[in-house]
Amino acid sequence: MMEQEARANGGRSYRIQTGWSVPEKSGEVPVECPVVRELASAEFPLADAVWREYHETTGNPRTDRIIAVISEGTLVSLARCRRHPDGLEVDGIFTPEQYRKKGYAGLAVGALVEACHHDVLYMHAVRHLTGFYAKYGFGPIPENELPPTIRERYVWAAGNMEGAKVQPMRRNAGWQAGMFRNCGNLG
Amino acid sequence: MNFPPAAGTFRISRRNRLTGFALVTLLSFIVTMLAGREGIPGVFSNILFFPVILACYWYPRQGIFLSLGIAALFGAGTVLVTPPGSPGVPTLLFQMAFLVLLGGVISLLSSKLSRSEQQLHTLIEFLPDATFAVDREGKVIAWNRAMEEMTGIRKEEILNQGNYAYSIPFYGTRRPVLIDCILHDDPEIRARYAAVMTDGDRLSSEQFFPHFRGGKGMHVWISAKALIDADGTVTGAIESLRDITDKVMTETALATTGSRLNTIAGIIRHDLSMKLAVLYGQLSMGVMKFDDPSVISFIGDLKGSAESIQRLVEISRAFRDIGTVAPEWIPVQNAANEAAERTDLGGVAFRSWAERLIIFADPHLATAFFHIFENAKRVSAGADRMVVTYQITGDGCVIRVEDNGTGYPDPVKKALFTQAKENCGSGLYLTHEILTITGMAIRETGVPGKGVRFEITVPPEGYRVV
Question: Is some CB atom of chain A closer than 8 A to the CB atom of B387?
Answer without folding.
Answer: yes
